[in-house]
Amino acid sequence: MPALDSSLQNLSVSEIVAKHTFGTWRPQKGWKPMHVVRADGVYFWDVAGKRYLDMSAQLMCSNLGHQNEAVVEAICRQARELCFVAPGHATTIRAKLTEKLLGVVPQGLEKFFYATSGTEANECAIKIARLMTGKRKVIARYNSYHGSTATSSALTGDFRRWFAEPVGCAVDDVLHAPECNPYRPEPFKTASDVIDYYDYMLSNEAHVAAIIVEPIVGTNGILVPPDDYFPRLRALCDQHGILLIADEVMSGWGRTGKWFAIQHWNVTPDILVTAKGVTSAMAPLGVVAVNRKVADHFEDGWFAHGHTYESHALTLAPAVAAIDEYRRLNLIERSAQMESVFRQKLSALKDRHPSVGDVRGKGMFFAVELVKDRKTKEPFGTFKDKYARKPMVIDQVVAKLAEQSVSMIGWMSHLVIAPPLILTEGQLDDCVAALDEALKITDALAKG
Ligand SMILES: Cc1ncc(COP(=O)(O)O)c(C=O)c1O
């Protein structure tokens, strides 16, 4: 190995990374990133050889498990054949992925744009909606995350938008509205109430191009809407002549027991955005899928978008292999079948831990929400606490899980349970055993 720059010689990998690269979504002080050296299936290992069970599939994205052989092989094969050609050309792999996607996306979506992240794909989707309708405004929902560039920051409903607003890094003309949250039905009790509110908004606004929603809200709570929400939302969009955009960056690719979450309600959006699981996160690909009506607009209208790495062959080849692997391993059906196992084992936590307020989810996408008091549903932390840099109790729970070799994302006052779709029941039991220990922290603070 070549000698390191002399100023770096006495530092560990973790120290070099922390000192000379940015740790995201945090102040830099105090960042001590784990040095990960290996990953395989549902596990990854740190440099000291400690093995972690990956219960959030990293960022809810490694759906096939780590280092899937077929995907690795597809990347190598493509690298040998053709790494890159400018996106104005046709490539075999671009045609192949398109053919595969047509077999899995909701019927009616038939033209694609291949970007390199969920953020960029959302950015593109909004540009498409604005160019097509000639209107600027977009409705998004509060408990949402749509990405970190200018428009996708502005769409984001959670506190991550707040940092970008004062310095103008979140482009405006986004209106925020409530989502459907069956556990916390304030300010609206039912799906009907929520839709009526959107109707009220749309009746009092002009120049609205689209509404963007995560069909099952991801990091912000794994919120599964009631069955009447999406059919009514689709009808409302048609009535007001606005586009429905489904952000399936996290909820796609078998996570909820269907290829895409919106398929649970037989609703087809005008535009669907996805990323993460499309390659099982083994290469950076984002996808925008649009229906014929949207596609037709650009027959004469300019598709005024593009970048050097769009349709990059090294991102498309792993997606083709990943789709084949989802099918070969039957993972979409498996995720649907595992839902009852997850529900039963995680709901049982409620009987043993007074701090568990709610357990909810779909497929292999679950939240365990922690509360100080089941009656008042007071959470252990909020967006405002996080923004004010207060210490978060949920971070203590996550640290206790890590101590027991379980890696999991904790968010304000809930845990996100979204492992690779190959997780076995026995591995879920290991996770539950670690949760039994970690939840003692919140139990001690909760009103029994
Ligand atoms: C629903 C949703 N949309 C968009 C994004 C942004 O995707 P990316 O991080 O690939 O830019 C995320 C990332 O977590 C997401 O969960």
Structure description:
By secondary structure, this protein is α/β, with parallel strands linked by helices. The protein has 2 domains: 34-64 and 330-443, Aspartate Aminotransferase, domain 1 (Alpha-Beta Complex), CATH 3.90.1150.10; 69-328, Aspartate Aminotransferase, domain 2 (3-Layer(aba) Sandwich). The chain has helices at residues 13-20, 57-60, 69-81, 92-102, 118-133, 150-155, 160-164, 191-203, 229-240, 292-300, 313-328, 331-352, 383-387, 393-403, 425-438, 440-443; strands spanning 36-40, 43-46, 51-54, 109-115, 137-141, 174-177, 208-213, 243-247, 271-274, 286-291, 356-362, 365-373, 378-379, 406-407, 409-411, 414-417. Strands 4-10-9-8-7-5-6 form a 7-stranded mixed β-sheet, sandwiched between helices. Strands 11, 12, 13, 15 and 16 form a 5-stranded antiparallel β-sheet that branches. A 4-stranded mixed β-sheet has the order 1-2-3-14. α3 (69-81) runs antiparallel to α11 (313-328), α4 (92-102) runs parallel beside α11 (313-328) and α8 (191-203) packs parallel to α9 (229-240). The longest helix has 22 residues, at 331-352. It starts with 12 loop residues before the first helix and ends in a 5-residue tail after the last helix. The model has no long low-confidence stretch (mean pLDDT 97). The structure holds pyridoxal-5'-phosphate.
